[in-house]
Structure formats: C-alpha cells, structure tokens
Amino acid sequence: MLNKLALSGIKHRLRDYSVLFSGLMIASAIFYMFMSLATNKSFLSANSPAAATAFIFGFGIVLLAIITIVYVNYANTFLLSMRQKEYGMFMMLGAKSSKISRMIFVETFAIGAISTVIGSAIGIVATGFVGHWLIGALDMQVKHFNSFYLPALIWTFVFFIIIFMFSAIRNSISLRRSKVLTLLKRDSQPVKIKRNGALKTVQAIMGLILLAIGYVSMWYAGNNPVFIYLGIPIALVTIVAGTYLTINSFVTAVIVMLKRNTKYSQKGLNNFTLSQLSFRINDYTKILSMVSMMFALALGAITVGLGFNNQIDNVVNGQNYYDVQLTNPDAAQQKRLKSLSIKEKNTYDYKVSGKKVYYRASEFKKQPFGYSSIDTKTMKSSLHKTTDPTKNGGYEIMNTRLPQLRMLETVLVSDKDYDAINAKESTTVLVKTNSFKNNLSEIKSISKAENKRYPILKNAGGDKYSAYTLINGFFSGLEFMGFFLGIAFLAMLASCLMFKILSGANGDVKRYNMLYKIGTQQKVLRATINKEIAVLFAVPAILGVVHVLLGLQLFTKILYKPYANIEIPFLIFLVLYLGYYFLTRYLYKKIVLK
Amino acid sequence: MQKIVEVQNVEKIYGKAGEKQFKALSDVNFEVKPGEFVGIMGASGSGKTTLLNILSTLDTPTSGQVKIANQDITKLNNNQMADFRANKIGFIFQDFNLLENLTAYENIALPLALQNRPTKEIKPAVMGISEKLGLTEILNHYPTELSGGQKQRVAAARALVHEPSIVFGDEPTGALDSKSARALMDTLTKINREDKVSILLVTHDPFSASFCDRILFIKDGEIGQELKKENANRSEYYQEILDSLGTFVE
C-alpha cells in the first residue's frame, strides 16, 4: 500500500521529477563523455605529443568527480526536500521508520540507476555527435576516437553506483533520525540571519588581494617560464580562495550598498530582488565560486585549444612562404593552378651540374624570392623577400626542389654562364595564394597530384600542404581535447547552477504568491525573476572571464598570440551559457508563478 | 450616500459546464459604507474565502457585479486587477505573509515601492503608520526575529501604508494568541474610528467579530442574517453573536 502511495506521489510531482531526472542524466552523460576520452589511452597517446596529457586528464577526472559528487548531492537534497513531507505524513499515519527509510533508499537508488543508464546512452550519442562536429568543423585529424568505449562506460556505472549508494544510505539515515514534526514542517523552519559587517569588509579586501596575487603570479610565470612550477600552484590556491571570499563578501557589499541607496532600492521590486540576492549569495557562495572556477577552466580549455589552432597557421606560415610548389608542371597541373586565387606566381629555371644547382640571377632580380622565418623568442613568423636566396632563405629555396636535389649547393649565375651550362633544364613554379586556408581544398588536390607525379615527394614533403598535415595532426588532438573538455565542463557547471537555483524555487512560491496578492503585475514578477537569475549567472561568469583573460598570461611564451581570435571561444560559451540561463529562468517561472 | 463595496447578485460556480458543478456562492448581495467595520462569519466551507477572493480581485465571479470605490472590478483585465489591488486594497492574511528576507521597514514600504512613489514620500508614510501601530522600535528587524503579534502588526501596517479604500482581513487573528489577537483588534478598531478606514474581516472567531460594527453571516454560499452592533457594548455584542451563531447553524 505504502509503495503504491509513494509511486502516486511521484506521478503527482512529475514536473519536479523530470527536472531531477534530466539533471542527473546530464551529469552521467557528461561524466561518460569525459571518461570516453580520459580512459582511452590509445587516443591520448596518439593525439598528444606531451606526456603531461595523461596527467592533465587525471587531474580532470578528479575535478569532474568532485563536481559530480557535489552535483548529485544537490540533486539529492532536492529529492529529499520534495519527499520529506510525504514520508513524514506516512510516518504520522503509523508507518514504521525502518520501512520508510527502506523506501527512500530504494527510491534514491532507483532514480540514480535509471538516470545513469539513460544518461550514459545519451553520453554515447553526445560524444559521437560532439566529436564528429568538432572534427568536421575544425578540419581536425583525430585518431582512435570512439564514441562508444566500454571501459569508460564501466567507469561511469561504477562511479555513479557508488555515489548513489552513499546518497541512498544518507537519505535513509537522515529520514530515520528526523522527527515526524520536523519532516512535516521543515519548510517553515526559520532562516538564520547573519550580520557581521566588519568581518565582511575584511573578507572583501582579502578576497581582492588574493585575486591580485593570483593574477600577478600567473602573469609572472607566463613571462618567466622558470617560475611556472611555483606560479601555477600559487595562482590556483590564491584564486580559488580569492574567488570564494570575493563572492561571499564583495558581492554582498555591493548589494548592501545598492540597498542603502533608497532612490534605487525603493523603486518597484528592486528591494525585494536585492534581498533575495543577498540571502541567496550567503547560501550560494560555494557553488558560485565553484562555478566561476569551472567557468574559467572550461573557457580556458577552449581558448587554449583554439590557441593551438591559431598555432597551426602560424607554424605553417613559418615553414613555407609559398603555398604551392611544382616542378615541371604538366598541362593538368597548370589547369589546376588556375582554380587558385593567386597573389603571386614565380617561375624559376635551374640546371643541375655536378654537386651544384644553377639558377639565373636575373630571374631573382625580376621576381624576388619570398621566404619566411620564425623568431624563436616570440614564436612569431615573418615574411621576407630577397634577390639572393643563397644568402637569405637558402633553406627554403632548397626545399622547392625535388628531394634528391635538396642537399646540393645553390648557385646564382649570369644569363651568359647559365646558357653555357650543358645540362637539362627544369622549372620550378611557386605560387602564393591570397589565403592558404581558403584555398585549402584546391591546394590539397594539387599537392596530391604532384606526389603522384613524383612519388619520392610522398615521404619527403617539403611543400606547405605536407607541413600543414603534419602540424595539424600534431595540434588537432590538443585542440579537440580543449574543446571537448570545455564543452563538457560548461554543461556540467551550468546544470549545477541551474539545479541549485531550481531546488530553492519551491520555497519561493509563497513569496511570489504574496507579491501577486498585494498587487504586483505578472510582468513585474517575471522581470524580477529574470533579473535575479541573471545576476546569479553573471557573477561567476564575470569572475570566470576575468580569470581566463588574465590566466592566458601563462601561455604567452608557449602560444603564439594567445589572445588571437579569443572572441570565438567566448562566443561559443556565451551561446551555451545563455541557453542554460534561459532554460533555468523558464523552469523557475514554471515552478514559482501560477 | 457613497458606498465603498457594492456586491450585487454574485454567483460563483466551480467546475465546467457538463461536469459535476459546485455552487460556492449564490445570489450574494451586500454593501459596505465608507468607514464601516464589517465582519463576515461562517463555518468552514460556507463560502467566505471564495467571497473574499472575489472582493479582492484574486478570483472572478461566475455572474453578478462587484463594485469597489465605484469601480466594477469584474470588468478588469489581469494587469488592471494587479494595479487595483496595489492601489485600492490592503490585505491582512492569517499567516502574515511577510517576506522574511526583508526587514519590517522594507515589508511595510513594499506597496509604496510597487507604486513607484518617490523615496521622499515613502519614509514619512512608513514612519507615520509604524508609530500608530507601535512598531518604530522593531523596524530594522527581520520577520523571523519578531513575535506573532508583532508580525501581524507589521502586516497590518503594510496593508494600511498606501491608504487603501478598504482593508480586507482573512482571519487576521487566526494565528495569534489571545493577548496579541486582542491587541490587534484594538488597533484595527482605533484606526477604523480615527482614520475612517473601511475594514472587512472574514473570520469564524466570535471574539474578533465582536469588534465589528456589523456582521454578515454566510452559510452554504448565501448570506442569511445580519447583526448590527448599534449601541451594544462589546461583551453584549459578543453574546449576541454567539446566540446568532447558535441559531444560524441549525
């Protein structure tokens, strides 16, 4: 009978349960997504040149595990707050507490198990989808990537079974220990109000100081790589602590200041919104600081990942000046060249005699030879022109020849001397397009055709396209990991925040109902809700963005222009994050307003 | 003479046509004059909460007309209803309904802030009503730091601060101990007498009702009997109410 009652209770609160289920499913889906990369050793070793990758992923697993535990904990509190009144009523009607605690155990565990199974299935689909989307969108070369990876699935199951087992035990113990009256009346227990201004001021100042120390140490370590092993731990500790203190006190201080400004606070529902926020912030400090750290890590992962993508262009451009190089092009190759948008096209003749390769000096006078170089200090590549490639760019002119001729000496001679050399003449055609990226597919087909004509080129490379393939393969893995981690983290943290906000919604129903009764228009109520949730989303986002912008200082020596194209990851983030904001506020209004 | 509340042929039926219907109010007629202190009494399920919800624009009648301060409130749209509540009506609820994250002062100021009154008007208004209700000492406290009686007085101050045409009370003493209940009723009477504020209470407690000038008894959705205080003192009136209740219920 009781089981039937409990089930009918679930039916009644289907909406709340759907929030709970979807939240837990997201958690397990993301956990699986992460594990499918992190536990796939062949993927990691094939796609990352650095041995540190395995370590970074290990670190990531720990982080994600902690977040997941916190997340499930919130979900569990949500479940318990939903059910305790009903279970209290059963107990009042005479159900034994052992029976009740068994019921909540079964319920918690069943909810966990069902959502883990469905969530993992979603995770497999999502992994495949995100993976292929990234590979397609960013022209990546990723090896050994599987959306279905059994060890990851097993890890996910084991992990979630353990945490749900603990949650179930905790729930059943907490129900067994609580008095019936507390269960029935928990909603109306008073909230304690803390008021200690002096401590808050100290906290606010401390928080800002700690953040400053963290930022400076990142900047310093970025510019003096020797200190990186000291700088990162210092930054990590000070920034985590600084974030916590800042949110706990600085934000509260701003709210108090706004409240004191009666011109602002006594307009419409502003005072109500501010009070809601200041009460919330006390309760939310932990989650908001966690979210802002996660936000920084996620955004950082994507930004750095994209930084590697920028690196590809930079390194490739540093390798070769010309996008296409052809030796004695036939009609078919000439035709293909026409499909390129050409910026510069140079043709040089040469003759090979003995251990030397002879060029006409006059040809280089007429069409100066372009070459590029990388400044090893700034990691910046630059383009130059020369009329004497034996002095500058000697390496590059060698590379324009077929591999067997590359080790020979380059000599420039006058037209008269050149004509006197009795040897077969070859022609090199060098083309620079207006953009390597935009002409990539045509360049690819030309390079393929050239490799077919001279099979020796296949292993030797030398042209820009083969440099590109090599470097793209090298950095794509890193970029893929960055994007994948970033998106997974973001989804996790935003759903964490969403859950926390929604779990408080039931307590707000009465407040909004009262405001409605004393004559607040629905649209005013909606506006306050939007404002309140916007602030709760914005606080960690703003701090997170600042963390990332300053955190990128760490990469100034490793990456070429770490801030280049930064708007792309920020935009991706903004879209996803806004999506969560709108979803949260929609669900919240559904719970709170009539 | 002008009327504050005018209820004509009001009917409320729950349930859609064709389904099982329930008539909560049938042909209710009455009026409240300015400065009157009126009570509506009835047992649980008699329809008194339905009536109060309709009067306070939280619900609409199935048929009939309700005029408050010469405005037909049954013809308002949702936004107009909200504005009407904000401007013309004050509310005192049984469970206080204070916002526990606002101080007493902020709770009282809320109706004025909702109307976007200038700040310099808000403070004197809040201080004035607080003084009248003896709340000046506790204005900076949060509701959880107040006793039940104090909370209800804060709620009363909130209901009065914007000088509404009428104050509705829904069992305002229902959650109070006898001493606080008496204090609250004394305060309401004083405000009714001195400031000519019209008050309409819904209650099933004869003690609270004995403070009213006039009592309407409601049973099964119909107003059956009316009892006026006239020149009787409070304890005589209390006795009369008990007698009426005894005969009315049968």
From TrEMBL, chain A:
It comes from the Bacteria. GO terms for cellular component: plasma membrane. The chain crosses the membrane at residues 17-35, 55-82, 103-136, 148-169, 202-221, 227-258, 287-308, 480-502, 533-556, 568-588. Keywords: Cell membrane, Membrane, Transmembrane, Transmembrane helix, Transport. It is a multi-pass membrane protein. Its main location: membrane. InterPro entries: ABC-4_Integral_Memb_Prot, ABC3_permease_C, ABC_permease_BceB-typ. One of its GO terms (biological process) is transmembrane transport. Residues 59-177 form the ABC3 transporter permease C-terminal domain. It is found in: Cell membrane. PANTHER family: ABC TRANSPORTER PERMEASE, ABC TRANSPORTER PERMEASE-RELATED-RELATED. Belongs to the ABC-4 integral membrane protein family. This is Peptide ABC transporter permease. The lineage of its organism: Bacteria, Bacillati, Bacillota, Bacilli, Lactobacillales.
UniProtKB/TrEMBL annotation, chain B:
CDD domains: ABC_MJ0796_LolCDE_FtsE (cd03255). Residues 5-245 form the ABC transporter domain. It comes from the Bacteria. GO terms for molecular function: ATP binding; ATP hydrolysis activity; transmembrane transporter activity. PROSITE patterns: ABC_TRANSPORTER_2. InterPro entries: AAA+_ATPase (IPR003593), ABC_transporter-like_ATP-bd (IPR003439), MacB-like_ATP-bd (IPR017911), P-loop_NTPase (IPR027417). Keywords: Amino-acid transport, ATP-binding, Nucleotide-binding, Transport. GO terms for cellular component: membrane protein complex. It holds the Pfam family ABC_tran. Gene3D superfamilies: P-loop containing nucleotide triphosphate hydrolases (3.40.50.300). GO terms for biological process: amino acid transport. PANTHER family: ALPHA-D-RIBOSE 1-METHYLPHOSPHONATE 5-TRIPHOSPHATE SYNTHASE SUBUNIT PHNL, LIPOPROTEIN-RELEASING SYSTEM ATP-BINDING PROTEIN LOLD. Belongs to the ABC transporter superfamily. This is Bacitracin ABC transporter ATP-binding protein.
